[in-house]
Amino acid sequence: EPEVTQTPSHQVTQMGQEVILRCVPISNHLYFYWYRQILGQKVEFLVSFYNNEISEKSEIFDDQFSVERPDGSNFTLKIRSTKLEDSAMYFCATKDRVGTGELFFGEGSRLTVL
Amino acid sequence: QQQVKQSPQSLIVQKGGISIINCAYENTAFDYFPWYQQFPGKGPALLIAIRPDVSEKKEGRFTISFNKSAKQFSLHIMDSQPGDSATYFCAASRAGSQGNLIFGKGTKLSVKP
């Protein structure tokens, strides 16, 4: 079964450091998303990305965050200067088409900011 | 208006029983209502989804009931099994924005053998 692969599975960083989370989408998928889940809370939308540009973003996705697909395979989320409150599980999700195509989630990258 | 309210927060059901989880929304622009299942340490996985033009959708032991006028939808798990023990999230999205899912807070289901 095709799957979305995320790395690292867990990253610990110091406050103020830059972090890059990586996602390898399912091969024929064109729509990419990042979500986050603070421990014990609901899953929250961060950003959607299609055709090499952001199509939609939430209030959470401020100037500290950026996304790109630098090499046509990996889809990355960068947090420029991490804060304590960025500690969460970050999920990459992808789908093959707009509309009712199923959204496939990766297993997540746990970010711990100290 | 962007919220999806989910209840209960946790649910304990005996094996073979029916698990029912409820969600309510306010935004009438929502037109896609999926349910996701999440096991510890894993990402959410789509379980079943419905659009507002039907009132019920069934897939195996899982059924979504949808009440458009009340702006409510629910997940019913028939013949609940210990393997169904997981956290269940309802979600909703607007037309043309179906990757931007608004999730409920989740229901932790425990099915006792």
Percent helix among the residues of chain B? under 10%
The class by helix and strand makeup of chain B works out as: mainly beta
Largest interface: pair, residues per side: A-B, 26 and 24 residues
Number of helices of chain A: 0
Biggest sheet character of chain B: 6 strands, mixed
CATH architecture of chain A: Sandwich
- What is the general shape of chain A? globular
Strand content of chain A: over 45%
Rounded to the nearest angstrom, the distance between the terminal CA atoms of chain A is 36 Å
What string gives the helices and strands of chain A in order? EEEEEEEEEEE
Task: Tell me what you see in this structure.
The complex is a heterodimer of chains A (114) and B (113). Chain A is mostly beta strands and 114 residues long. Chain A has a single domain, classed as Immunoglobulins (Immunoglobulin-like). Chain A is built from no helices and eleven strands. Chain A has strands spanning 5-7, 10-13, 19-24, 31-37, 43-50, 53-57, 65-68, 75-79, 88-95, 104-105, 109-113. In chain A, the strands form two sheets. In chain A, strands 2, 4, 5, 6, 9, 10 and 11 form a seven-stranded mixed sheet that branches. Chain A starts with a strand and ends with a strand. In chain B, the strands form two sheets. In chain B, strands 2, 4, 5, 9, 10 and 11 form a six-stranded mixed sheet that branches. A five-stranded antiparallel sheet of chain B has the order 1-3-8-7-6, with no helix packed on it. The mean pLDDT of chain B is 93. Classes of the chains: A mainly beta (114), B mainly beta (113). The interface between A and B is medium-sized, with 26 and 24 residues.
